[in-house]
Amino acid sequence: MSSSITVFSAKRRLLGTAGAFVLAGALIAGCTSNEPESTDDGDENTAEESGDDGAASGGNANDETGETVTIGFSGPEADHGWLAAINSSALAEADKYDDVELRAAEGTNDASLQIQQVETFINEGVDAIVLLPTDGAALTDIATRAMDAGIPVVNVDREFSSPFAARTTILGDNYGMGVSAGTYACQLIEENNIDDPVIAEIAGIDALPLTQDRSQGFADALDACGEDVDNRVAAEFTVQSGEAVTSNLLQAAPEIDIIWNHDDDQGVGVKAAFDNAGRDEFFFIGGAGSSNAMEWIQQGEMEATVLYPPTQAADGIRLARLLAQGKGMSDLVQVEVPRRIVLNAPVVTADNVDEYMHLGFDS
């Protein structure tokens, strides 16, 4: 199978040629990394940022047109809403800059094909590569080859197994998602004077480190206010699995005060199970930040959702452009792009949903 690379420039707009991309079909690894997050940053700099719409704004010298650079982008297939948003946001972000020529590879879950795609980027001599690897460990060697060839690599979401494989890494915060959800649950308990609350958790695939990190963060935050999870089930990041495990949960627990669901894509099924059972006595908290979740919050059918920013690859394009042009991040005193950036996991509620609505993705 040969790799497929599509070239876009300022004169050939990405969004008008979206049909050239296959953005469907993906393993559920979906909203997240399939590699455990490193907790040892060494001498790396860590910047905490909240997701934004990535719009190039006036008044920032970094946004002024500079030397044209070629960026290679390779991401996953996308039958999961978050993954589709990752890919489309990267394409749209590159299209905002007159000085960026994007070479976008066809989305894939085949590590061997993705290795071929990166090899093509290296042979073409691109100025930078943005890579959300199908498997971080499997793509480490080829990413290291790119770095050795003088091509800075921006590693998105799923980490490589060597620090030499990327110039910078941009990540969502899975543990932080759990902490945000648990902290908000504690707030709800206090504000509503809930005695001996029954707390339920609908996780994603338990075998994945990302799910383990989210659950651990949730448990740690609840422990801080003297609570714990009473009922827990695990789905598979799909609508069907979300509905099935939630139906079982509702039968096992006749009364629930708070439910946290890890993933808003599977949350479509979770919500269907709620509706089918006629259950709405609990505060419903989601995860990732889909358009469905945002709308349910606006309509009063959902309490909150915790973002896992779908802007990571778009931010990766911005960082790759800065690296290729020898620039730093204008809001930092430091003159170079940091080695590691971890995005924030904010809680979206009725009070701030309008601020985050533009980041919502289709489930």
TrEMBL record:
Residue ranges, annotated region (Disordered): 33-69
Signal peptide: 1-29
Subcellular location: Cell envelope
SUPFAM superfamilies: Periplasmic binding protein-like I (SSF53822)
GO cellular component: cell envelope
Sequence ranges assigned to domain Periplasmic binding protein in this UniProt record: 71-327
Top-level division of the source organism's lineage: Bacteria
A molecular function GO annotation: carbohydrate binding
Family membership: Belongs to the bacterial solute-binding protein 2 family.
Alphabetical UniProt keywords: Signal
Compositionally biased spans, kind Acidic residues: 37-52
Name of this protein: Substrate-binding domain-containing protein
Residue spans of biased composition, Low complexity class: 53-63
